[in-house]
């Protein structure tokens, strides 16, 4: 949702009056603004700390140039930019409509006609990108905006020239969004136009089924499935399923090009023919209309904050701009991309209520088998927790080595857990745990805090260095309570976690030492 301007926000950038904040993230902030002529725009302003970094300025300049080259009927155009400003910024056309992720999350899968029109429009947009010698590299639902006259592909902030010799991103940094990245992106291999085709196929699968084709709660799950597992396309049938499956081929050579995708979806008449007769279902069309109308309610000028020289006057320097405590009113939906993107194609999740220090696997490449690994957990309580039954040292039936498969609360495989329990009393480290995903693993030790005949309560402490893939640290430091509950009937240990960020994994552990 759009937020009012804060005291730290400028009232003007260049010749654009800012009306509200659309979002913020690692690179900068995105604002809703108005030009001198009354055009509504989205203004992205980079964080001031990057302004002194000449390498960043060069990258930003290349990104603006790439976005200017795109243009096209199905994208938001770059209208103005100043990469050389004290604080660099860029203004693009503002699209008053919800993004695709919001629409599908709120209204469910879209009808086949909408899917075909959407896919044809995006394919034509990507064809324009590719003919300019560029790749988008981050096609995902939140980067697609919906309007009454068709979709708009946005956020070319990580677009890259196909013949570029200078990298636009730091070495080792992953580019793209988990679940929508192509296998070659995940594995750090050379990318091509086929990379955008894979992402387009994933978007179409999400729109048609209401679920991403590679579901999961954590980046590691998503990335592993992209590389190693077939897409989940339940609900897709006929030619559309065949096309989406072809787009999602693991090998780039097996995918169609965007021109083929556009022809298969819309025929020789193109996307316009599908869209001209009305392409959005009624609930989505109503939301698009509400957001467009909401723009008319925004005030066009505040004389108290207007810059000198008339309605807008000459473009002031960023450092000289006045600030406004807030912009009046609360404004419509997202309307434009922000740097603070949620996991694509999936509902936004509420932030955890507490900060924990847990050892979690966050991302993968080839060889990984599942989600981020939590090596701490909270297990099911046993009815025999009577303090009178509490021993002073670890009971003998816990001692030994155990293993089992971790499963999230959504039923997704989360790797394997291996642990060894040894003798000790409260305050001792009595458990060694290893959470393993393919060739990667995260380890920790468990400090005993409480004992009963059927349950051990522990606090785990991460051990060892975290492996790093594509610039991403796989294991995050954390501590959290852990319990191991003995099941008398089948002689297993029940492992479970209440950590939302780890997907609340559980495991039934069996002995591996005989």
What does this structure look like?
It is globular and about 80 Å long. It is of the alpha+beta class and 514 residues long. A hairpin with a 4-residue loop joins strand 20 (481-487) and strand 21 (492-496). The strands form six sheets. Strands 12-13-14-15-16-20-21-22 form an eight-stranded antiparallel β-barrel. Strands 1-2-3-4-6-5 form a six-stranded antiparallel beta sheet, with helices on one face. The N and C termini lie far apart (57 Å). The chain has helices at 54-70, 100-107, 112-131, 183-186, 193-209, 219-228, 238-247, 258-266, 271-276, 282-296, and strands at 12-13, 16-24, 28-34, 40-46, 78-82, 89-93, 134-135, 144-147, 150-153, 160-161, 360-361, 400-407, 413-421, 429-437, 440-451, 455-463, 468-469, 472-473, 475-476, 481-487, 492-496, 506-511. The chain has three domains: 17-94 and 300-320, Phosphorylase Kinase, domain 1 (2-Layer Sandwich); 96-285, Transferase(Phosphotransferase), domain 1 (Orthogonal Bundle); 360-511, Lipocalin. It has ten helices and 22 strands.
Describe what is shown at a glance:
The chain is α+β, with helices and mostly antiparallel strands and 514 residues long.
């Amino acid at each position: 949702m759009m937020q009012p301007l804060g005291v730290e926000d400028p009232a003007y950038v260049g010749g654009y009056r800012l009306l509200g904040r659309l979002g913020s993230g690692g690179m900068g902030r995105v604002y809703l603004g108005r030009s001198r002529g009354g055009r509504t725009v989205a203004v992205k302003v980079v964080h001031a700390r990057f302004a002194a970094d000449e390498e960043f300025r060069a990258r930003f300049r290349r990104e603006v140039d790439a976005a200017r080259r795109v243009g096209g009927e199905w994208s938001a155009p770059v209208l103005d930019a100043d990469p050389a400003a004290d604080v660099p910024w860029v203004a693009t056309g503002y699209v008053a409509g919800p993004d695709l992720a919001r629409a599908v999350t709120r209204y469910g899968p879209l009808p086949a006609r909408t899917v075909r029109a959407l896919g044809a429009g995006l394919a034509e947009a990507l064809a324009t990108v590719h003919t300019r010698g560029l790749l988008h590299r981050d096609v995902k639902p939140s980067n697609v905006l919906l309007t009454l006259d068709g979709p708009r592909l946005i956020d070319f902030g990580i677009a890259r020239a196909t013949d570029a010799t200078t990298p636009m991103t730091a070495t080792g940094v992953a580019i793209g969004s988990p679940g929508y990245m192509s296998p070659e992106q995940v594995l750090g291999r050379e990318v091509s136009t086929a990379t955008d085709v894979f992402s387009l196929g994933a978007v179409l699968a999400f729109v048609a089924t209401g679920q991403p084709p590679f579901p999961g709660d954590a980046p590691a799950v998503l990335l592993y499935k992209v590389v190693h597992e077939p897409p989940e396309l339940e609900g897709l049938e006929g030619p559309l399923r065949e096309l989406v499956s072809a787009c999602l081929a693991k090998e780039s050579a097996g995918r169609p090009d965007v021109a083929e995708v556009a022809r298969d979806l819309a025929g020789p008449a193109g996307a316009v023919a599908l869209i001209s007769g009305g392409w959005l279902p009624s609930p989505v069309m109503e939301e698009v209309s509400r957001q467009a109308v909401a723009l008319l309610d925004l005030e066009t000028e505040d004389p108290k904050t207007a810059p000198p020289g008339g309605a807008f006057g000459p473009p002031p320097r960023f450092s000289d701009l006045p600030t406004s405590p807030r912009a009046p009113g609360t404004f419509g939906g997202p309307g434009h991309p922000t740097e603070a993107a949620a996991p694509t194609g999936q509902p936004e999740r509420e932030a955890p209520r507490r900060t924990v220090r847990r050892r979690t696997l966050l991302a993968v490449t080839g060889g990984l088998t599942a989600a981020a690994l939590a090596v701490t957990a909270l297990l099911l309580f046993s009815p025999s927790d009577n303090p009178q039954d509490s021993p002073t040292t670890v009971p003998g039936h816990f001692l030994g080595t155990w293993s089992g498969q971790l499963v999230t609360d959504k039923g997704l495989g989360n790797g394997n857990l291996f642990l060894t329990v040894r003798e000790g009393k409260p305050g001792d480290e009595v458990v060694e745990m290893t959470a393993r995903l393919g060739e990667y693993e995260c380890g920790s030790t468990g400090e005993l805090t409480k004992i009963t005949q059927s349950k051990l309560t522990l606090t785990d402490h991460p051990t060892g260095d975290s492996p790093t893939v594509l610039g991403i640290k796989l294991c995050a430091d954390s501590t959290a309570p852990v319990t191991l509950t003995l099941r008398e009937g089948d002689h297993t240990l029940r492992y479970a976690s209440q950590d939302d960020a780890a997907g609340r994994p559980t495991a039934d552990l069996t002995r591996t030492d005989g």
